[in-house]
Amino acid sequence: MKFAKIKYLLLRRICQVSILVLFILGNYSIATLKNVQYKQEVGIFGGNIESLMGDSSSVLAKEPSIFSHIVQGNLSHSSWFGGIFSLTDPLSVMQIFLAGGGLALDVLLGALLVAAIYGIFLGRVYCAFVCPINLVTDFANFLRDKLGFNTAQRKLFISRSTRFVILGLGLLLSALFGVAAFELINPISMLHRGVVFGMGFGIFAVLAVFCFDLFVLKNGFCGHICPLGAMYSLLGKFALLRVKHTLSNCTKCMECVRVCPEPEVLKPIGKQDGILKTMTCLRCGRCIEACDDNALHFSILHFTQKEKK
Ligand code: SF4
Ligand code: SF4
């Protein structure tokens, strides 16, 4: 297999796995504990050992992992390089704000930084390169393709706009009931926390997403339901990183449309030259890898030139 055919897939997997590994290493500490016979024991634990033990007196000493200087926290809020900057999920912040919760300055600044990175430059890249659920849904969709479920008649129709309704509903419910509504059932943070700190009942939410994508609907969760993906789509509507279509190279084979998880993004294929403007594009690069005619590539400059016309 040619490297060009899998280069974005490899990059995506390296980013997703590296981010998970960094969070695992950064959140672990080596602790000396008292056991029941008051002998000392050394163990490695993730997260806040005191709350895990339920009794801080049983923790005799705690040595944070050397990676804790790189990152600590989770995908909702993390502190980087010893607190030089924070990264915060803007959707969590909006829900907490609407629910009437207090927001620390570093949390707010972290959300603004994330909004600026994705809003100005990267668009919905979070979904393709960061989100751990993407590993689950990509696997479900790979199996779906292999098992021939995609050719079976579709039994369920859900509009791709549903995710925007769920986003609005999540914010409304947060304001009405005073709780961060989506966070109560958010499979993304359940999976991330589960991998980093230990999996609990969150595994059922992750399994539900996997089964929904495998048995019910192609690209079901990310393409139709997830409010976080919807938020990053809205946030990155005018982001600079885009996929550009070179009409003169296109042979209209439509391989790109076949592999794209958001096919409506590729409506201009074979018809219109220039950047693809639809906000739901993940910038996953699948269409670029699939194209044998050099008719698609990532572009930043072309977008700015086009907008100036
Ligand atoms: S749509 Fe949601 S679950 Fe899917 S990759 Fe994006 S943030 Fe993750
Ligand atoms: S248009 Fe290309 S980069 Fe965008 S979501 Fe579809 S396959 Fe991914």
Written account of the structure:
This protein is an alpha+beta fold and 309 residues long. Among the domains are: 140-234, no CATH class; 240-300, Alpha-Beta Plaits (2-Layer Sandwich). The protein is built from 14 helices and nine strands. It has helices at 7-27, 49-53, 90-98, 105-122, 125-129, 133-146, 162-177, 187-197, 202-216, 220-225, 227-235, 255-259, 286-290, 301-308; strands at residues 28-34, 40-46, 59-64, 71-73, 77-80, 85-88, 242-245, 274-275, 296-299. The strands form three sheets. It has a three-stranded antiparallel β-sheet. The chain has a three-stranded antiparallel β-sheet with strand order 4-5-6. A hairpin with a 3-residue loop joins strand 4 and strand 5. Helix 7 (162-177) packs across helix 11 (227-235). One iron/sulfur cluster is lined by residues 243, 260-262, 265-266, 276, 281-287. It comes from Helicobacter magdeburgensis.
Output the keywords.
309 residues, alpha+beta, Alpha-Beta Plaits, three-stranded antiparallel sheet, 48% helix, 13% strand, binds iron/sulfur cluster
Count of helical regions: 14
Distance between the termini: 40 Å
Percent of sequence in beta strands = 5-15%
- Distinct ligand kinds: iron/sulfur cluster
The number of E-state strands comes to: 9
